[in-house]
Amino acid sequence: MPGMPDALALAGRTISLCLTGGIAAYKSVYLARLLLTAGAAVQPVMTASASRFVGKVTLSGLCARPVLEDMWDSSFAGEAHVALAEQSDLVVIAPTTADMLARLAQGRADDLVAALALVAKSPVLIAPAMHPRMWAHPATQRNVATLRADGRVRLVGPVEGPVANGEVGLGRMSEPEAIFAAIVEALGARTDLAGKHVVVTAGPTVEDLDPVRFLGNRSTGKMGFAVAEAARARGARVTLIAGPTALSTPRGVDRVDVRSALEMQSAIDAALGPALERADALVMAAAVADYRPATYEPEKTKKPKAGKAGDVLSIELLRNPDLLAGVGARRSGGRPVLVGFAVETRDLVDYARRKLRDKRVDLVVGNLATHGFGGDDDEVVIVDEASAEPLRASKRQIADALLDRIAGRLA
Length: 411
Known about the structure:
- The structure is a single chain.
- This protein is of the alpha/beta class.
- It is 34% helix and 23% strand.
- Helix 9 (222-233) packs across helix 14.
- The chain is elongated.
């Protein structure tokens, strides 16, 4: 069927789907299903009159989120419309009644849907639906002209066809598939990695001292998981090799859990193949431990008694293999594309460029330790043999910028 979603084409995107009080609201239930099938998170929002046409339980059950309709919703710490705008990659109003068109054109904010459209940072896509005479009325046409001139909303439809009372004319809401296609276009969903296999490592590795204690680091895995999710959304087959982390597996991603650096090396070798022939790109976002204990104690090591001999503990460490450098040394030609990450405390570009050269990789993403751990945003520099591009954005946006570079090299 034309307009049916590619699997996970909208993975990682959050869409506020707003319904107003028109008979075409029943079509928006199917639109929600299309968006969910494409991997989007869908937040349903309704005006008071919309609930006369579609039950809130239907949408909340489908979207696995409560329907929002109250400007004073207590589930938000602050203003509901502002909080919704912050989390939305796109605001969709389907159906958009003549009354809502008028209120949008006037900049009204007298319910949650109108206020959300007014404060939205993202694009706002509207799907008008009304009787043909209402659509043709000069007042409606003035409102549409105002919205188009403002450039703040995108219209999809209306289309010619039968409306609720059986009359035929221009005013019928576009079909859900057409609205979905407009959503994909508005969000710039891409499939430039379709047919490619991208291997991503993420999170820390930990090196066990005994059954209780280990050596580790502060990596949360968020950057690697963002890369895996973004690559899958762009059509790639993705293998995510993850150290210990509490993050959920992105939809459609094959996950391999490991603990130590040596376990991660084995998983990488299996994913890449003996001649590196099984993958098109390797993104080493994991923070791999440089050293491991020389010995592992099968029982918990007891703390020595206080005193001169027990106040200092020495642990013998062995160097772990450099996983990325090992792949770089084995590679001939440009496949797979190799990407490293460098977390430093100073001289970021110099260190990143040295890592690029020494490990024979294509790209290095450098970030300062003060920016790199735990948050959803980051400040990085993407370094290749000819340039160093600074970027301050969300980790998902950084992931897409990195994948742009990878897709360019694969092309």
